[in-house]
Amino acid sequence: MAKALTLTRRFIVFIILIIIGASLIAYFFYPSQKPSTPTYSYSVTIYDVIGNKTNVIAKNITVVLQGKTYPEYNVSLKSPNLQNTTYFFDNLKAGDYQLLIYSPEKILLFNKTISLNYDVMDKIVIPSQPLFIQILVNKQPTKLGFDIRLKNIDRNFTLNVTASYTNGTFKFAQLPLGNYELHVYYLTLEVNRTKFKLDGLTNIYNVNIRLLNATFMLKDEKIGVLNETSLYLIYQNKTIGPYISSENGTIVAKDIPPLKFKLIFNYKGINVTTNETPIIDFNSTSQNSFNFTTKLANLTLKVSFDNGSPAKGIGVIISPLITAKLGNEGNVTIKNLPANVDINIKLNSSSLIILNKRITLQPYEENKIELTINKLNLELSLNAFTSIDNFNVNIVIQDYLNKTHVIGLNYKNKIDLRLYPSIYSLYVLVKTPSNSTINIYSELFVLNSTISKSINLPLGYSVIINTSNIEDTIYLYYIDAIDKYLIGKVLGNHAEFKNLIPGNYIVVVMRGNDYITSDYVQITQSSPNSIKIDLNI
Known about the structure:
Immunoglobulin-like, four-stranded antiparallel β-sheet, 60% strand, mainly beta, flat, 45 strands, single chain
């Protein structure tokens, strides 16, 4: 009985030890699961100072939530994502976050630090408002194009908006409250500058621009009103215009800013002087009609070549609107040109300006001016792979505008020519072994000043032939469409033929009276200077 009891006690102890061991194993190798980290949400409804009065949320803003405790968190929302009114951020860990609100122009409107350890529902009124800037012209809506520059004085940022044609209205979705400076531009001119304070009381700011209309006439003291005139207005090195005259000579300039302008009148493409001071301060005058007077002159032009012959048929260009042509005696009379100003006379031959002369005419006089078309220097030098004296070269220069004028020259080391201004074709010809000629160079060039030309010609090639037998005789022939012509022959297994021109050649190898082999060689302008041929037979 006592033995049985002892066994029972031992069994119970054994079971207890097993339980303790299992517990220890579970404790060390299977630790208990930690509880999950709680997350929270943040929702915010945003109003600007004007929308807050009417319960209308701020629109066209970007809302950014950045983690401060967790920098990796950065979420941006460009519109409400909860019930179209609220910006909602979820799955946020407890900690600090930065709320940033931006305008469409990326101006920071609001900045706030948020600490989360529970769900937060927020309402924010940002210190900003929408703004409509309405440009009025003479207190009326306008469709004229204006540019504006809006500067925030407090925060020193500037917004530039280009021309608006929608009744002169400029729209800003959100702007920070504060002090602003507004610049209004019309035709690149600043026509208004004003300061105002954006304080949330109104979202409309009107700017009235005064523009005016005026008429102008340009007259000659003797002829009267001139048509084909135009007018430019200049203010601080900025120009508006041109305003073009009607058939009766009246120039109507509309929508002029009330500034102090310098006036420049143009008659048939030439700026003219006026008897009156060409300055008007439209800000200090109520006058809207102005007359200005200028003086004209006549021109008799006579043009000859330096050999005394008349330059008949040559075109004369005073301006795009004033052109003429020289008669058979090389002269022409042009009436009613602006006096007392620089006039640029251009002589034109087949679209090439061959002479350019600046003159000034005296008013109400027969201004007689004679011009001479002088020859210009053309210097040519020709170069080849070897001495060019080894070749029979001819040069042809042809007047491209007058095909009948052809100059043929035999080559000299340097060619100096005197030619009249024109467009010329240049050809370089070389005589072949068959006594024919081929063109190896051509160029079209304009001669309107002295020119020095150095031309590299494809002349002076060499052909080197190697064979395997010292008893060979090597022949080189030049061939054309009619026959072949012997250039030379060399006894031995090596031959070099120099001073070759572009063309077709045949190499023939003879051994005694026996024909051994031949080869065809073509030399072009792209061939290397030296051509090597191996005929090892």
